[in-house]
Structures are given as C-alpha cells and as structure tokens.
Amino acid sequence: MEMKIPQPAGQQQEQLRPFVGRPLRRIEDAALLTGRGQYGDDVGVKPGTLHAAIVRSPHAHALINGIDTKRAEAAPGVRAVLTGSDLAAWSKPFVVGVKAPMEMWALAMETVRYAGEPVAVVVAESRYLAEDAVDLVIVDYARLDPVVSIDAAILPGAPILHEGHGSNVASDRHFRYGDPETAFAQAAHTVELTVRYPRNSCTPIEGAVVVADYLSEEEGYDVASNFMGPFSLHTVMALALRVPGHKLRHRTFPDSGGSFGVKHAVFQYAVLMCLAARKAGAPVKWVEDRLEHLGGLTSSTNRQSIIRAAVEPDGRITALSYDQLDDVGGYLRAPEPATFYRMHGCLTGAYAIPNLLVRNRVVLTNKTPAGLVRGFGGPQVYFQLERLMQRIAVELKLEQAEVYRRNFIPFDAFPYQAAAGALIDSGNYQRALELVQSEGGLAALYAKRERARAEGRLYGIGFAAIVEPSISNMGYITTVLPKEARAKAGPKNGAIASASIAIDPLGGINVTIASAPAGQGHRTVCAQVVADVLGLEPDNVAVNVEFDTQKDAWSVAAGNYSSRFAGAVAGTVHLAACKIRDKLATIAAAQLKVDAADIVFAGGKVYPKGDPSRALPFLRMAASPHWAPGLLPAGVEPGLRETAFWTAPQLGAPDDQDRVNTSAAYGFAFDVCGVEIDRNTGRVSIDKYVTTHDAGKLLNPALADGQIRGAFAQGLGAALMEEFRYGEDGSFQSGTFADYLVPTTCEVPEPQIIHMETPSPFTPLGAKGLGEGNNMSTPACIGNAVADALGVRDVELPLTPSKIMDLIGAEEPPPSQAVAQQQPPAPAAGTAGGKGGKALAARGEVVLDASPEAVFRVLLDPVALAKVIPGCNALEPAGAVPGEHRYRADVSVGVGMIKARYAAEVALSELDPPRSLRLAGSGLSSVGSARGSGIVTLEPAGDGTLLRYDYAADVSGKVAAVGSRMLEGAAKIVLNQLFEQLGREAGGKGATVGGAPATRKRGLPGRILTRLLALFGVKP
Known about the structure:
27 helices
C-alpha cells in the first residue's frame, strides 16, 4: 500500500540541499505587493460588457405571485431583466445530493426560501444604473410562515419548505460499526453532552466575481469567475445550463482575494450570469458586495447533536454515539450534505475507538443554503468530540492529558483503519503530547492556573486533538445513499490530480496545475518541487495557476479545497517533473554515452554520475529537442511536454457496511491554551496558545506557518465572535461587520507553533494538508478552556462577553444596575410585534419650542406632516376612518449602504388633542418591510412642549441585515431629525434635549450632521 516516490536518477547522492523543505519567500508577492495583482474585478472585459445587479427576496419564506419589470426595463441604460419565467427555456434545476423531490433553480421560481434569495437580475450599461433599476422591480409576495431553527423545522405540523418532499428532513441515515450497544451496556460510565455549533462563514477580502458570455447555440457559454472548485460542480453547472460539458468553458482569474471554501458557492451565480448574458445578448459582469456575500452566498451548517461515550474507569472510550442534525438552509445545494460525510470515516478522531453508532439528519430551514467553509465539517465534529473528552476527564476526575494518552491511536498501529472506514496513514500522537509538555510549557501553564485561582481569578486550560483529513475521496458523498441506491448509480471514488510541465525552445520550464489558489503560495511550492527534480533554481520555473476547462488537463476533483494541494497537487507536479526528467535523461544519455539511470540533474547542469566535468548546461540540453528533433534517440517521441495524473489507490467507494476512507491523508494537530476571563466584562483573553502539527513532509515551513496562523485566527473568530443571526421571521441580521464581528490583529495573539513530521506513505511527496486544522481545533480548545475556567458543563459558541456573563451568573454592580421601567405598550395590531425581524425600541423625551396645540396641529396636517417625516417624497390621505388619520406616503430611507423607497402607510389614532396620540406606520420596498407603533404624549413646559415618545418597530429583509449597531444608530439620528423638524414646523426654533438643541446634543456641527445623515441615506 505504500506510495513509491520516484527518485531522480543518481541525483540523491550529488544534489545540493533540496529546495523542498526550505522556507522560501513567495514568488507571488512581487506582483501583489506592488498592486499588479489580477483579481476578478481587475481583469479587462470585452467591449460592450454589461453589468448585473440582483433583486433579492426581503422575505425568508413567501410565494411569488408576480414580478412587474416594466418600470425597470424602461429605466435608462437597462438592457434586460431576467426572471424565473425565462429560466425554463434555457436551464433546469441544479442536481440535488440526495434523491428527494426538491428543486433549486438559479432564481427563485414560485417560492422564496431564504432572505436574500435571487429573484431577478437587472442587466444595464453600468452597475450604478442596474442598482437604480433594481428598486423599480416590483415583486408581489405572499408571505408564508418561516422555520428558522432545527427544533422548529422538525416539529409535526411545521411549515414545509419543499411540499413535494413532505418533510423538512431531507435525509435520515443510521450507521452502526462494531457492537456499540454491547459496549454501552457494559460500560462503567456513560458521558453525554448536547452540543450546538453555530452558523458562521468566511470573509475573504474579495467577494464573488463572475463574467459570463453566451456565444451561440453551437459554442455554448464562456464564463470566468473566482470559483475555487471542486470542479465536480462544473458538471452541475453544465447540466443546469442544459449543455454538454465542452460547451461550458470555465476559467479562473490569475489571483483570488481569499476563499476559505465559500467561493464554491459562486457556481450558482456563474449559471445565473450565463442566463443573464443570454437574455441580454451581451457579456455580463457581476461583482458581489459585502452584504450579498454575508447574507446571500453561503455559510457553514449549524449543527445540533447529542454525543455519548461508553467509558472505562481509566478513561478509555469503548464506544461513541452521535445523533446529529445539520441545518443546510433553504435548499440542499451541492455538494451538501457533504458537511456530514466528509468527516464520516474519521468520526472517532484521533482515538482508537472500536464501536460507533451514528444518526445523521439533514434539516431544511429558511436560511441561506450551507456549503464549504474552511474545515468543512471538521469544526462541527471536533467541537462536540473534544468537549466530550473534557467532560470525561472532569466527571471521572482524571488528568486531561492522561485521558488523551490512553485513547490515542498507538504510534505503531499506522496505517490505522478507523471504525467508520478512514485509513489514517501515519502519525505519532503520543509524541505530539510529549512535545506540548516539553516545548509547549504545559507544566508552567498548570502552575499559572493554580496561582491565578488562588488569587480569585478565572483561569482555564483547554486541550483539543484533531485528525485533519486532506485530499477528499470524491465518492464519500455517496455514503448518504443506502447501498442499494449506490449500486444502482454506480461506484464513485478517487481524487484525481493533474499537472503538466513543458520546456520551451530556450529551455525554460512552464508548469500548469489544475487548482485555483486563493493566496496560499502554490506557485512558490510548485517551483520548489520542480527545481529539485530538474536540478535548477526555482527562478527557472514559471507556474501558471489560471485554470481553463477547455485547455488544461483536469478532472472532477480539480480545484482548491479540502487541503489537497500539498499532498495531491504538489505531489502530482513532482510526478510530472519526474516524467519529463526521465525523458531528458534518455536524451542526454545518448549524447554522453552512458545509461539514463546514471544521468544527474544538479546545479543547472546535466552530467554522468561521478563525472561533473562532462556536464552539459541544462538550458541548452533541454532546448535541443526543439531545434533538432531528428537527433532524438530511437524510441523517444518529439515534444517536451508531460502531463501526470494521480489518485490514491486507497480511496475506494463506500463498502456494503457503509465504511468509507473519506480522504487520502490525515494530518494531526494537538492544541493547548490558557485563557483568563474578566469577571466584570466577560471578556475572554488568550494568555497562551500552543499548536502542534504533523502534516507529513513540510514543503515550505514559512507557508505552512502562514496557513496555521490564518486558520488559528479564523478559529478564534468562530470561538469568540462570529455567528450568523436570524430574526424570528428569518430575516438575516448579520449583514455588516458592525454585527458580524471578525478578529483583527488586535485580538489575535501569536500562537506557538510546534512541527513534527511523519511522512504519509500514500502521497507522492509524503505531504499532508494543514490549511484547515486550527479552524477545527481552536474553537474546541478555547471552548474547553472557558469551561475549565468557569467550572461549567455546557458552553455554546461564540463565547461572547454576554454569554460569559450569563455563565458566570453575576448580577450587575449597583452603580450600573438598570432602573426598572415600565415596558413599552404592546404595538397596535398590524404594526410592530409578533414574528418580526430586527426589533427596535426607542424611548425618550424632547422639548419643542412650540405649544402642544401647535405641535398637534402639525401632526394632523398632511402638508405639514410631509415636511416633518424624514425622507418623505409625497404624502396623501388614505381614506377617512373614524378617530384616525391615515396617509399613504412615498418615503426614501437608508441605512449604511442600504437605500430604498418605501411605499408606506402612516396612521394617527387614539387621538386625545392636544395631549397624546398613537403614531403607527408600515412600509414595503424592494429591500424589505418595516412596521412600528408608539405612543406620543405632549405636556406644557413653560412656553413650549415636553414631548415623550415610546416606540417599537420591526424591520426585515435587507435593512435588518445591517445589524443592530448601525440600525439603532441610524434610528437615533432619524428621530433627532424628526423632532427638530417638528419643532420648526410648529412655529418654534426646533427641539431641545436637556436644554440643548437636538442637533447639538450629539456634539456635532450642523454640516457634519448633514454629512452623517447623508451617509445613512437620510435627506437633511
């Protein structure tokens, strides 16, 4: 089973120190650091290329009764509007990962199933014109009850997202390995936890970019995007466009501003822009903005699970049981439910556990569809498994490190077949524990914890051990199907990687790889690998990372995902280099009159082993077959281009017992951290973090450390900050960095990185992946440290200060304790309250320099009221109702980058002039809905009026997505502006708060306030 690594003929004795294994600087940086990078939006487009903007649903669940595009189509510069009615003629639904009657099209057809789902595409001569026309598309929605949580989705009688399926559980699979029932029955202890892992995502600097063109019926589509793979989704795209694969040319851009997995979801938009280009009759470009990225692209699955362990008195685990539910959002979008099954073979982690029981349920909710996020299934698995390891140590009163030592796979057991099928290639986990103790300073960390606790401080230590899979078996996803369905569909397995190497007429080396790097340094490592094989400097090697499905050698496994580069891609580059070296050796042997096996490539020269005096310059020798092919030795074909394909033979299809080796290689990380928690604020500070990694053969230690630091920062964000939040109505509430917090350099400490190497026997270079490891281990490690510091059983990510304070259970100190106040009155029927999105409340008082009678007259005068309402374009009576004044209004409102015109209704009721009234309003726009209600009271105050207000409101859709911080700030500004204008319109000088003008209360000069209001889209 061992992978035989080709060795250069004679080179191992005479080659200088190899470049592989050295921390060489990235060759990519020269262009990137001087601004010469070619990201998606930098690349030139054809003349006449149009620009797209997407109309997205403001509702999480609704029927589409109709779409009126007439005003948008008549807008300046608009060339086309694509809607669901166009799709059936040119496309069909995307392939679903399980056999279930549910459909996902490039646009919502009859029903929207998550806030932010694409409903239409406006194509115009510029992005600005397209965005303006989006507001003119009128969609008639009939709102449906949403399901936003796993618990709600699986209840009997819950609203069904896909009626044809009849259930929100898209898949329910049971697995059994060994004899777990007997192990649990005979166990001395059973330890159980209920664990929830939140929704989070990645935030690459560059969002999605797609440039698509429809060429003709004969030529098909040409699309460029920053899609990162897996290119099995190329098949999904071609099928959705109803064309054979060769009629969908897909290219990537030279550079990518990060992905971390999420750009796999660009495939839906690649199809969408192909269709938009077909309707517009011209190429179409779409660039995703930040709100679209967070709210509409993808996220990791949030998981809810019960995990149990059968445990012996000494802490050894004899059986595990998982009952897992994954929330995949509104659609089971390819490649889901891969989050479950990528990790299936190694659910027992780093431990020798012979018995395993698993239940996996895939649940649909009214949220963004889930997909690839760095670690892809690993964070969800290891948070529950490693939290369980901590609980075993606590409940059995054992030393945590000793529990790990007793359960680790023995170092002499590799390759180790795990219960569910993973063939874990190599490792020495006990050695990693020893390194943490010796080099990581574990004893000093224990001593520090004792000192801190003696002083009354909250200090905890956490551990986490993870097996990091790399080079995914393309057949693992079929484990979701019963064996009978797998047999009917045919076997799927393997992970083909490809690479090509060519030599030009001047002896230059050109490498092409089937990957789509997003900043990792693939060009640098490939140059190191080829330089070693051919005895050159890396500067002599050019590496092309632009990917083209019509020109390059590739397979369904191509792409940049699941940590496949080091083991598969770089390894295949090595194999291709060996092929072209062996051909050159045959040519050189004929010239030097020696055997090909005795040819040495070293120092930029080619010479017989042991006789460098007869050396030929590599460049001249390698170029000669171009200029004199007639002199090639017999049997050597002309041409100096070699392509290598590789797949690990260990990657078979799932067997009849549902065992599957989900990946070709398995790295290892063992982490320990010390954290201190502030009792008064709930803030978690990382005092020390040690991470020990085994990624097999390290190809470039500097780049390896960069990947580890990046994954650590991302794992830290998942542990302490990052979470997608949704309202009860399914509205997305984390659409900006004001509410979706990500760590910055100020929050990320420097981890201590310890390397060890146990080369994989299954990969060409012995390398394994390491780019995802800390995104799997860090959340669990920090979670365990917090649980240790607080002495609590359960912790839930992200561990924000408010959650920590709840766990501490301390009351606020008296000076800052909130004063009990009467709750706001219940909103009037049909206004705020109920199943709302982002809930807002405002309460306060202002002094108006006008009498209550004058103020009341303004509120009842539609002409005057129109001048008071911020952003009001028009106001007209909406019919007489006894005791009420009702108006229809056209109001422009904006928060941050979200600006729209609302068709609003304003109602004044419960009139008690000049003392009080109820003010209510509701509005609907292309970006969502809003509704609110509140009591306004007026009291004489000297020559003026004391106005008190108590207001509650709900907003949903795109506006809610900007988050509470920005939304509440904008609301305060708008209220200040409203009362200032109300006072002026009533004949006074404006409003005062505490004796100062309202506009001065915030300490802002008028011109600055005007600019601030403009920033929020509010007309001054």
